[in-house]
Each structure stands twice: as C-alpha cells, then as structure tokens.
Design brief:
By secondary structure, this protein is an alpha+beta fold. About 30% of the residues lie in helices and about 25% in strands. The protein has helices spanning about 35-40, 45-50, 105, 135-165, and strands at about 25-30, 55, 65, 85-90, 90-100, 110-120, 125-130. A hairpin with a 2-residue loop joins strand 6 (about 110-120) and strand 7. Helix 1 packs across helix 2.
C-alpha cells in the first residue's frame, strides 16, 4: 500500500456511517463543477483560497489535510490525518474530518464530510453535508461549531471564485 493510499481506520469514527442530524449547507456558486471540484482537490488552489497549508492526495485513503494553526503542536494544527473516503470527479468528494482542539474529547474521533456538486445553468449548486457525529452535548457542541465554521469556509470559497473568474 503506497503512502498515498493508507488504510482508513474505521475504529476512529464517532458514529460510523451515521447520517443522524448532519450539518448541511448549500451554496449556488458562479463557477462550473469542474472548477469547484478543483478548488477542493488541488492542494495549491485549496491552500490559496483558504489561506492555509493544504495537502490533498486525490485517491481513496489519500490525505485531506488543512493546517489552520501552525503555532499549535503537531496533531492540533488542523485536519492532520484526515483522508479521502470516495470521490467522483466534478460530482462528489467525501473525506474524514476531525473536531477542533477546543473540543478535545471529540478531537480523536472522526466524522465525515460529503461535498456534492450539481451543474446548473449559471454554475454549480454545492451541498456540504457533515455527518457521523456522536450523541450527547459534546456532539451538539461539535455541530454548532461546524455550523459556523463551514459557513466561513464556503464564504471564502465564494469570494475566491468571484475574484478569480
């Protein structure tokens, strides 16, 4: 198995395969599905619009890592160790995701994100679904955190797409 295709550790998931109460966001973007897919799967582009170091290895088991805070110790900088679960070019991307360091009890457990792209006349409808959260107050806090955080991410994508037409 190559470094790019690491086995996915299913034991780390908070709620494997659960789609209970996902965080769901939709955006209509003035860009083609091909451009939106590249914005998430090309390390350089992803790092540019999010303004953070990014590492994407477009293969099942490949890395999907964003480092949001380089001042933190390794393992607390961002999505280190997150991996691509599945993809259909220009249509869908699924990857594992971890919780923020501010929720250390949840940080070691994985959730998953699915991005779905639908072509429309004036661009793309992007649907982001973040699921696999556990149950209880900790996971309710996690959902609330990501309801805000994914909105910020999608705002940044929308601004970058508009600025780089």
């Amino acid at each position: 198995m190559s470094a790019m295709n690491k086995a996915i550790d299913h034991s780390r998931f908070a709620a494997p395969g659960s789609y209970e109460r996902p965080v769901v966001m939709r955006r209509r973007l003035a860009a083609s599905p091909e451009r939106v897919f590249s914005a998430f799967t090309d390390s350089e582009l992803l790092g540019t619009w999010l303004e953070v170091p990014a590492k994407v290895e477009l293969a099942v088991g490949g890395a999907f890592e964003l480092l949001f805070d380089l001042d933190q110790p390794e393992g607390r900088q961002g999505s280190e160790g997150c991996q691509i679960l599945a993809f259909i070019p220009n249509e869908m991307l699924a990857f594992t995701w971890n919780s923020p360091p501010s929720l250390p009890e949840a940080r070691g457990r994985l959730t998953f994100v699915v991005l779905q792209l639908a072509r429309v006349a004036d661009g793309t409808i992007l649907t982001l679904s973040h699921a696999g959260h556990g149950e209880g107050e900790l996971w309710d806090q996690n959902r609330r955190y990501f309801e805000r955080a994914w909105g910020i991410v999608l705002d940044a994508l929308e601004e970058w797409l508009a600025a780089t037409k």
